């Protein structure tokens, strides 16, 4: 049965006590009021006639709408004679039932639908988020947030629409505007345990980026990051501290550069033998586990401190005697509090900070890390600075065997080297290993010997496996620097080697068919697979770490010409060290005149000039050019065995050179020359072929 709808002045309408909705939400009421001011009352009210007051009605359904109209009239947003549509019912029971039905069966709008509705208004009516916020009584931030949800990756948005994820989960995905990244993480989490874990979702979305509150971000600063081309993903659901800095590589580079400069200044000021910058809040265990601690000496107590400690002990004894007195009350609450305070004061006096002498600092290795506040700080633990043994024979060592002077010279050399950040050390190790892997992959016989040795050695030893610097199962070791691409000649050659592998056998689903197809490959194709499989297991080990000696030994046996494969550039080296360190290198290869010539250059220009100088692209004297082209950081050298070890292995080398009765394996595709270290030509044949 249809009921008549009439228009009644708001002044003649009052809310009925029998209205079923008793509770409301002030924020929602404000939004409703804004909507009514903008569009009027869209849905009619339901009311009963008031007895003996003709033309007046009590509203049993629509009380919130009526209250919103009355508030708007009081504020002057609506005219006093504003009329509202009212459906008039005769029976009070009917009015209550209709009111209940209207509220009980009301379906709240899906957040997904609301997002798309806001988006449609902007596109069709050409409105701004501020216009929408005013119309619906919302904040502009709220509207912008819903609009961002409307731009979620399609799988995520559909899950929100279907109720498969909550609004909070959708907001977590909206913490980045990268829809491809959203879809990837959503698919990765799938129906797993962490699919609704907001922290895990944000953590995976942030992989490769940093929050604004990260110590690296605090160290670099927002202005410097943006000036260097860094992008910030404005997160409408978070503040400045939790916004996402998405160009992690730019921030890493800036943080490393700034921390390295700070470390160099600290070394100069404090007099440490060596210093290393670690752009993190802590030092990895693998970085220091093989180093020895440097422990300072506790300073003696001052006369005032000794007197205070004696006074504390006397007072504690006096309190104890009073408590033990037969007529006493024992320890009172005040006594216990006083004793605790005295003990804490005594402990604070005794816990002195160890002091290092200047001599200890001069032989120490210090680490500079980033504090939680973004400030560079010296890690509290110092270590004995490792001293590299000089290569070559025993010349210069006296008859008495004393080499103290050599040791002092080595420490002086170490102190004069530029400070390297931990990331640069790791990247140099990875680029060095790229060269080694290319040479191993290009020499199947060498790869066969190396692979067989690693497996046999690992099977016959219970300990010491890390010395091999390999995990032979053809698994790639975890990279020391994630997503690192060196762009070097060795990286290009490795890509060529991988691209030239015969993969025709990989297409079979059955492992037996794959094996038979693999065995049917030409001998040179199988040899290429052998070299590739062994080479990819080699780990990137920084110089001086466990396993680096074996890496250097392999590079020496393969006679790798590092200078032909790798040259320092602004990107991979000079941008990563300080300006004084670059000028020291100019002095080293060209003398004071060359240093003075470039001394006034800005850091960026100096790094570019250094790249050209050490690539042989600057017109300088022939001897300077020769030294520059031969120069390498120590971390990139395959250091030869020292004299003692060479003597020990002389018999092994002779055995290696003996003729072999085994059939000769062919080299892999693309190799133009025999990779024999004993070849008459001292140049690197693989570098020449590449």
What is the CA-atom radius of gyration, in angstroms?
38 Å
Averaging pLDDT over every residue, what do you get? 77
> Which class do the helix and strand fractions yield?
alpha+beta
Domain module tally: 5
Query: Ranges with pLDDT <50 over ≥5 residues?
Result: 391-404, 643-680
Shape: extended
Count of DSSP helices? 31
Strand content: 5-15%
Strand order of the largest sheet: 1-5-3-4-2
Please describe the biggest sheet, giving its number of strands, its sense, and whether it closes into a barrel: 5 strands, mixed
Strands, total number: 13
Helix percent band: 40-55%
- Terminal CA distance reads 90 Å
Q: What layout of secondary structure does this protein have?
A:
Elements: E1 5-9, E2 13-15, H1 26-39, E3 45-49, E4 57-61, H2 63-75, E5 83-88, H3 92-104, H4 111-125, H5 129-136, H6 140-150, H7 154-161, H8 167-173, H9 179-189, H10 198-205, E6 210-211, H11 215-220, H12 222-227, E7 232-233, E8 244-245, H13 248-270, E9 274-277, H14 285-288, E10 293-294, H15 303-324, H16 333-350, H17 358-362, E11 364-370, E12 376-378, E13 382-384, H18 404-416, H19 422-441, H20 444-460, H21 489-499, H22 511-519, H23 523-535, H24 548-557, H25 562-565, H26 579-598, H27 603-613, H28 622-630, H29 643-648, H30 650-657, H31 685-689
Parallel strand pairs: 2-4, 3-5, 9-11
Antiparallel strand pairs: 1-5, 3-4, 6-8, 7-8, 10-13, 11-12, 11-13
Helix pairs in contact: 1-2, 4-6, 5-6, 8-10, 15-16, 19-21, 19-23, 20-23, 26-27
């Amino acid at each position: 049965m249809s009921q008549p709808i009439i228009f009644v002045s708001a002044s003649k309408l009052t809310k009925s006590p029998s209205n079923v909705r008793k509770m409301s939400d002030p924020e929602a009421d404000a939004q409703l009021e804004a909507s009514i001011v903008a569009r009027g009352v869209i849905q009619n009210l339901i009311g009963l006639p008031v007895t003996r007051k003709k033309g007046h009605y009590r509203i049993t359904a629509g009380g919130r709408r009526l209250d919103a109209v009355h508030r708007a009239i009081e504020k002057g947003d609506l005219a006093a004679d504003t009329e509202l549509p009212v459906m008039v019912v005769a029976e009070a029971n009917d009015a209550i039932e209709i009111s209940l039905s209207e509220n009980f069966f009301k379906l709240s709008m899906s957040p997904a639908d609301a997002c798309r509705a806001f988006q449609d208004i902007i596109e069709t009516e050409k409105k701004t988020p501020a216009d929408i916020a005013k119309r619906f009584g919302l904040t502009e931030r709220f509207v912008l947030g819903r609009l961002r949800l409307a731009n979620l990756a399609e799988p995520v948005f559909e899950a929100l629409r279907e109720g498969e994820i909550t609004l909070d989960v959708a907001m977590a995905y909206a913490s980045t505007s990268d829809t491809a990244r959203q879809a990837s993480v959503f698919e990765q989490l799938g129906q797993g345990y962490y699919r609704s874990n907001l922290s895990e979702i944000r953590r995976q979305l942030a992989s490769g980026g940093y929050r604004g509150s990260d110590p690296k971000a605090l160290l670099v600063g927002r202005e410097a990051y943006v000036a260097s081309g860094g992008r910030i993903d404005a997160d409408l659901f978070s503040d400045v501290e939790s916004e996402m800095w998405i160009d992690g590589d730019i921030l890493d580079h800036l943080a490393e550069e700034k921390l390295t400069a700070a470390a160099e200044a600290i070394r100069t000021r404090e007099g440490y033998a060596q210093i290393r910058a670690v752009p993190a809040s802590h030092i990895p265990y693998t970085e220091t586990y093989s180093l020895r601690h440097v422990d300072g000496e506790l300073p003696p107590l001052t006369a005032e401190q000794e007197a205070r400690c004696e006074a504390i002990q006397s007072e504690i004894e006096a309190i104890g005697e009073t408590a033990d007195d037969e007529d006493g009350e024992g320890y009172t609450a005040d006594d216990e509090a006083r004793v605790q305070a005295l003990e804490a004061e005594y402990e604070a006096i005794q816990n002195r900070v160890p002091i290092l002498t200047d001599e200890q600092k001069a032989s120490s290795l210090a680490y500079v890390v980033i504090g939680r506040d973004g400030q560079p700080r010296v890690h509290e633990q110092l270590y004995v600075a490792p001293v590299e043994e000089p290569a070559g024979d025993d010349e210069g060592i006296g008859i008495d065997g004393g080499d103290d002077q050599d040791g002092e010279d080595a420490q002086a050399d170490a102190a004069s080297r530029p400070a390297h950040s931990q990331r640069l050390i790791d990247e140099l190790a990875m680029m060095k290993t790229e060269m080694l892997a290319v040479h191993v992959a290009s020499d199947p016989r060498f790869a066969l010997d190396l692979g067989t040795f690693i497996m046999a050695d690992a099977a016959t030893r219970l300990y010491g496996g890390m010395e091999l610097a390999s995990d032979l199962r053809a698994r790639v070791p975890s990279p020391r620097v994630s997503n690192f691409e060196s762009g070097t000649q060795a990286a290009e050659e490795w890509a060529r080697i991988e691209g030239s592998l015969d993969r025709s056998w990989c297409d079979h689903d059955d492992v037996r068919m794959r094996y038979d197809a693999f065995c049917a490959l030409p001998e040179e194709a199988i040899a290429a697979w052998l070299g590739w499989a062994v080479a990819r297991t080699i780990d990137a080990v920084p110089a001086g770490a466990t396993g680096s000696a074996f890496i250097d030994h392999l590079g020496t046996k393969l006679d790798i010409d590092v200078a032909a494969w790798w040259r320092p550039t602004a990107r991979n080296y000079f941008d990563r060290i300080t300006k004084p360190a670059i000028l020291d290198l100019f002095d080293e290869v060209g003398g004071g005149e060359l240093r003075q010539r470039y001394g006034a250059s800005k850091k960026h220009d100096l790094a570019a000039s250094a790249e050209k100088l050490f690539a042989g692209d600057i017109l300088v004297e022939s001897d300077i050019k020769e030294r520059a082209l031969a120069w390498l950081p120590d971390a990139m050298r395959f250091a030869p065995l020292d004299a003692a070890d060479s003597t020990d292995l002389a018999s092994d080398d002779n055995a290696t050179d003996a003729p072999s009765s085994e059939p000769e394996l062919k080299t892999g595709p693309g190799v133009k020359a025999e990779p024999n270290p004993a070849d008459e030509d001292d140049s690197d044949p693989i570098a020449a072929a590449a």
